[in-house]
Amino acid sequence: MKTGKQPLYTCLPVYLFPHMPPMEGRSSMPVIDKATFEELKQMSGADFISELIDAFLDDAPSMIQNMHSALATKDVESFRRNAHSLKSNANTFGATELGGLAKELEFMARENNLDIGNRLEVLNEAFGKVAEELKGMRA
Fold it and tell me: What's the predicted TM-score (pTM) here?
């Protein structure tokens, strides 16, 4: 990491996600943390977990699309809100990589920075993996 003052969003991933390798190496993480998912399944009930999965799979693409639209119109607040919601929903299912990517984008937007490089594409790819795995985890 460079020395001197840096925007907060460039430092946060290192401190908030020290266990996460850099963007290009994140694929070694499990797509869904099984312990988190099983806890959710136990709390919600096996019958209800499929409904929760379906709601997430219906809502998340809209959030990602809203982030694309907000990026195009430079609507930082809309981008931040959608990243925040996606982060929370992903973490609920144990989709830690997706949640971490969304959290990183949320913090960048909180700093009024939408210079996100390819992070939205990486997030979209991570969602695709999560969606595929969650479809197989329905009760």
Answer: 0.79
